[in-house]
User: Which sequence fits this backbone?
């Protein structure tokens, strides 16, 4: 079974993304994108940390839309403030319930306030405001560690043809075995995996040029286009419930939709994985240009 598609919305509320030269997506383009993906994209991934994204969705989505919305509790929010934070998100989104609520930062859950924080999420679920509760992580091991403490049912983590850590470590399989719904994001590594050559890498990624050179060489040898390498890989990951994609214009959606509908690859993708310097795959380690991290 192939993963479903989820549309990421950081680009709707912020000038977010390593290769993003367009800045924040305009409200008209957001409306056009939401209309175009209707019926093909199942989820919308958002967060209060994405600037005005939640209120733009609230203002743009028709009351009878059928998207499953996932939002997040920002970093640094303690158990006492979860209910008020969620209420503000529901107001901005103009909905009475969301499909998923994720902790955007898991440090709180690993700390002294952890049990109270998890209990606050469970309260939101038992009061019918949220269907599934969970975490957004930067590595699968953190999710597995938390799963040993809390009955997490939804996890978002980075995964791409270059970043196969969640697969090769067995963590993804272990989570799915425990009934966790796992969503992958950064399937284009913020757009960098779609570059034709590493010379086009944004300045903050130049120190990692070798990694991208190696990857682009393998991709070329396999006669894969930048888009097909990323899309065919993630579509082949049947353990994933969904793939979160970031888009900044309609043309990107049309290209992606075309590739997604035709991708049938039975390829062994492990040779494309970066296994040496995996720290380079984590955007938190990238020197930040003057853009807000998602
Ligand atoms: N901690 C967290 O929870 C967290 C962290 C990061 C992201 N996210 C979520 O994941 C979503 C996606 O963000 P991401 O960082 O993971 O991005 P991504 O999906 O890996 O890359 C998105 C970028 O890829 C480029 N792109 C997409 N389709 C394209 C096409 N057909 N042709 C050419 N370029 C294309 C666009 O770049 P250009 O701007 O160059 O057009 C777009 O901004 C975010 O919106 C957010 O919802 C969550």
Assistant:
């Amino acid at each position: 079974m192939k993963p479903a598609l989820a549309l990421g919305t950081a680009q709707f509320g912020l000038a977010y993304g390593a290769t993003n030269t367009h800045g924040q997506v305009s409200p008209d383009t957001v409306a056009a994108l939401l209309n175009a993906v209707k019926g093909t994209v199942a989820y919308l991934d958002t967060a209060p940390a994405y600037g005005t994204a939640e209120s733009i969705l609230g203002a743009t989505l028709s009351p009878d839309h059928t998207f499953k919305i996932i939002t997040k509790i920002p970093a640094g929010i303690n158990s006492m403030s979860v209910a008020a934070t969620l209420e503000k998100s529901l107001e901005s989104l103009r909905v009475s319930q969301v499909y998923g609520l994720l902790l955007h930062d898991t440090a709180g859950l690993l700390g002294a306030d952890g049990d109270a924080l998890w209990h606050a999420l469970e309260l939101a679920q038992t009061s019918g405001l949220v269907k599934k509760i969970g975490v957004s992580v930067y590595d699968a091991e953190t999710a597995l560690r938390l799963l040993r403490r809390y009955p997490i049912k939804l996890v978002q983590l980075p995964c791409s043809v270059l970043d196969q850590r969640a697969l090769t470590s067995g963590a993804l399989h272990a989570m799915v075995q425990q009934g966790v719904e796992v969503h992958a994001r950064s399937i284009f590594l913020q757009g960098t995996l779609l570059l034709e050559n590493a010379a086009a890498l944004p300045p903050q990624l130049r120190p990692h040029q070798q990694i991208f050179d190696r990857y682009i060489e393998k991709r070329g040898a396999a006669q894969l286009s930048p888009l097909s390498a990323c899309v065919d890989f993630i579509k082949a990951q049947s353990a994933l419930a969904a793939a979160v994609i970031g888009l900044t214009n309609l043309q990107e959606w049309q290209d992606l939709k075309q590739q997604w509908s035709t991708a049938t690859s039975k390829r062994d993708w492990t040779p494309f994985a970066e296994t040496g310097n995996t720290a380079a795959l984590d955007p938190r380690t990238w020197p930040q240009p003057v853009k807000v991290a998602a």
